[in-house]
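@channel sequence for tomorrow's demo:
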Amino acid sequence: MKHFQSTRLVHKPVTLIGFAVYVLALIFLATVVVAIDRDSHSVSDTVYGAFPYFASTFLLVEWIASKTCEKS
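structure tokens (generated this afternoon):
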């Protein structure tokens, strides 16, 4: 079953599993930002601390979406 639809720039979720992938990624990233922001002293500390998590999470979501997408 195809859970995402490929568009020009992003993959749109078309099933409940596709939406769940995005929601789980957003929940994970929200907890990462809260945890990193607790010990940071400035906005740049938070950005630099959260960047590796954001990059790897977006890469993982993109990989999952590309493997389970239908071409438009």
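heads up for whoever presents: Helices lie at 16-39, 43-67.
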